[in-house]
Specification:
Layout (H helix, E strand, L loop, with lengths): L3 H13 L21 E5 L2 E4 L4 E4 L14 H11 L10 H13 L5 E5 L2 H16 L3 E5 L17 H4 L10 H6 E4 L4 H10 L1 E2 L2 E2 L1 E6 L15 H12 L2 E5 L11 H6 L5 E4 L10 E5 L1 H4 L18 H16 L3 H22 L5 E5 L2 E5 L8 H4 L4 H13 L2 E2 L8 E2 L6 H18 L2
Parallel strand pairs: 3-15, 5-6, 5-9, 9-10, 10-11
Antiparallel strand pairs: 1-2, 2-3, 4-12, 7-8, 11-12, 13-14, 14-16
Helix pairs in contact: 2-11, 3-11, 7-8, 12-15, 14-15
Bound molecules: pyridoxal-5'-phosphate (PLP).
Length: about 425
């Protein structure tokens, strides 16, 4: 595979951009080699600047539920552009998208649009703190909620991949207010709440969780984990935040909360909600959301929030979901087909690796024991994953360039794509000869 143009661009990029990229995991650092510079995407395919074509399972790290550049989103953007790019004043489309989000996700009674998942989660925490008058928050080891200071404590995704789950630059004060529990371990949460009780009750404003974890690789919640979290938060008057930036509109039209039938107090969104443009949102119970400025005292604002071009893409994406609820069955069936095919390949070469999957989110972990939390995830052989990644890439399959990420199937992936992927995986594993 010729990648000369990418190599040249990467050398140039490194002079002007830290690490040559605008978001760390893009740099291929954990798998080695040079990141590919992409020139265009169409459906399930991505084409790099050297003209190599790949079946893409990153989907821009989550947004591309419909594949690259679907005509209905492109047309919505083009038609919005005719009217101008930004007004800094309310538009009708913002009302329509807010209403649609509340319809698709019933726990959301009011919603505020922002520009990224990070903005959504950090704002949701501020609202929870303003609402409860408490400072501390609980997050789970290996979960990623964006790059706000108080989340970069034992964080997942790139932070985990690069071995700095707790980032320099995060103050001691921030770190002290973030309490870390173990995913899928309700006792660890109870213990933290107990330890943080004073005569005035517990000091915890919010518990934030990925209802299905995707940023330490895909990890499903064990039976009753989410329900027990809900009960605990009710008893202790703690705001329960589901971070559905990845799972929202991916696992079902109502996200993980619909699948598991648990209603959080607040939900954060990103990725699919913007139809490929930079959008995030947070919403939930009216009583809590009315705390947000200007209806309440908790300040949160954004010059480009609710931007008309971004809203046109998001509204097109969510309308499609509303009108085509059957896509989730198709996604699940196609993803199950891929999972089975990959597993057959692994069995054929006599290896027992783990594949965790729910709907169109999945991760192949290079470890023999079930992966249920951070500690079992990090047992994975990341070196072997790196080699596998490059073997797949050579065969035209573009996986996330890190072990601790989810791969995504889109509605643009055809049976032919999936078969090609299954075959490439078997050949890759065989060629590795470990
Ligand atoms: C991607 C992600 C974020 C951060 O979103 P950005 O748009 O990258 O800021 C937050 N939470 C979860 C669960 C995510 O997957």
């Amino acid at each position: 595979m010729v990648t000369l143009k990418s190599e040249n661009l990467f050398n140039e990029a490194k002079k002007y951009i830290p690490g040559g990229v605008n978001s760390p995991v893009r740099a291929f650092k954990s798998v080695g080699g040079t990141p590919l510079f992409i020139s265009r995407g169409n459906g399930s395919k991505m084409i790099d600047v050297d003209g190599n074509e790949f079946i893409d399972y990153i989907g821009s790290w989550g947004p591309h539920l419909f594949g690259h550049n679907p005509p209905f989103i492109r047309e919505a953007i083009l038609s919005a552009l005719e009217n101008g790019t930004s007004f800094g004043a309310p538009t009708e489309l913002e009302v329509k998208i807010a209403k649609l989000i509340c319809e698709l996700v019933p726990s959301v009674e009011m919603v505020r649009m922002v520009n990224s998942g990070t903005e959504a989660t950090m704002s949701a925490i501020r609202v929870a703190r303003g609402y409860t008058g408490k400072d501390k928050i609980v997050k789970f080891e290996g979960c990623y909620h964006g790059h706000a200071d108080f989340f970069l404590i034992k964080a997942g995704s790139g932070a985990l991949t690069f071995g700095v789950p707790t980032s320099p630059g995060v103050t001691k004060g921030n770190a002290a207010d973030t309490l870390i529990a173990e995913y899928n371990n309700i006792e660890s949460v109870k213990k933290i709440i107990h330890e943080n009780k004073t005569t005035n009750g517990n000091q915890i404003a919010a518990i934030i969780v990925e209802p299905v974890a995707g940023n330490m690789g895909t990890i499903l919640p064990v039976e009753n984990f989410l329900k027990e979290l809900r009960e605990l938060c009710n008893e202790e008057k703690i705001v329960l935040i589901f971070d559905e930036v990845m799972t929202g509109f991916r696992l079902s039209k109502g996200g993980a909360q619909e699948l598991y039938n648990v209603k959080p107090d607040l939900t954060t969104f990103g990725k699919i909600i913007g139809g490929g443009l930079p959008v995030g949102a947070y919403g939930g119970k009216r009583e809590i959301m009315e705390m947000v400025s200007p209806s309440g005292p908790v300040y949160q604002a954004g010059t480009l929030s609710g931007n008309p071009i971004a809203m046109s893409a998001g509204y097109a994406a969510l309308s499609y979901i509303k009108d085509h609820p059957e896509i989730y069955d198709t996604l699940d069936k196609n993803s199950a087909y891929l999972e089975e095919g990959l597993k057959d390949g692994l069995k054929n070469i006599g290896k027992n690796f783990q594949i965790n999957r729910i709907g169109s989110m999945m991760t192949l972990f290079f470890t023999e024991k079930p992966v249920v939390d951070y500690n079992t995830a990090i047992k994975s052989d990341t070196q072997l994953f790196g080699k596998y990644f490059h073997e797949m890439l050579k065969r035209g399959i573009y996986l996330p360039p890190a072990q601790f990420e989810a791969m995504f199937v889109s509605i643009a992936h055809t049976k032919e794509d999936l078969d090609k992927t299954i075959k490439a995986s078997y050949e890759s594993l065989k060629s590795l000869n470990y």
